[in-house]
Amino acid sequence: MSDQEVMILVGVAAAASLVKSTLGVGYPIFLLPVLALFMDLADAIVVVAPSNLAMNAVLLWNVRSEAGKSHTLRRFLGWSIGFAIIGSLAVPILPEVVLRLLLVGIVLVFLINRRRSPQFVLSPQRAHTFTPAAGALAGLFQGATGVSGPVITPWFLSQGLGRNAFVYSISSAFALAGLAQIVGLAGQGLFTDDLLFPSLLIIPVALAIVPIGLWVRRRVSAETFEGLVVLLLIGSAIAILVRMF
């Protein structure tokens, strides 16, 4: 990477970290499109994975008091971990177009349903039934594309959790799926010397911004918080489509 590309990477990582630490989501969807401008998407996934895991670990620790608020979390994590490893093994060969369209489709279904029923919350019975499918999809997309927010975010947003319980749930899901993804990528030898430097460089940059995002989160209302998450979902769907062309 050139010096200019490194500066762009650091700047975008800082901005993505602010969004992520405020809302709990948004880090890879900001970084990956920028990295894809000057490297292969498969390489970009490798670069983003370590700092994404570090961010989720820090956010998870910050709201650890919210453990146990989501009744689907443990089953969801079990399914997502296994499929994240499967997805990571498919990074070099899996067609991106199909996965990206599926991600966008999931976001659209969620947004349409939310518009029809703004207060929609999954019943415990239905959530229990669909947890394996949701966890498997999230893990597969995390491993294969580095982006699972369009699956994980609607799933936990539909369970009527408070903002910190929501952040705890999605951070748990992102962290464990991300760890499984890194194991799969490392097992294939994809962390080469050229990619290891930028991947490690942005970790302290991202973590340095976390306190600012936490400060912002404490000062926004619950309605504003949820609205920002929904807007980020819409933005993620647009970004995924843009990256297809």
In short:
The protein is mainly α and 245 residues long.
Give your account of this protein's structure:
By secondary structure, the chain is an all-alpha fold. The protein has one domain. It is built from 10 helices and no strands. The chain is globular and about 50 Å long. The two termini are 23 Å apart. The relative contact order is 0.21.
Please give the structural blueprint.
Blueprint: H1 3-23, H2 27-35, H3 41-62, H4 73-89, H5 96-116, H6 124-145, H7 149-157, H8 163-187, H9 193-218, H10 222-242
Helix pairs in contact: 1-2, 1-9, 2-3, 3-8, 3-9, 4-6, 4-8, 5-10, 6-7, 6-8, 7-8, 7-10
Features:
single chain; 245 residues; mainly alpha; 10 helices
Low-pLDDT stretches: none
Please write the string of helix (H) and strand (E) elements: HHHHHHHHHH
Oligomer: single chain
Count helical runs: 10
> What is the rounded Rg?
17 Å
Helix content: over 70%
The biggest sheet, with number of strands, parallel, antiparallel or mixed sense and barrel status, is: none
The proportion of strand residues reads under 5%
How many β-strand stretches?
Answer: 0
Average pLDDT metric: 82
Shape: globular
The span between the termini is: 23 Å
Domain count, please report it.
1
Structural class: mainly alpha
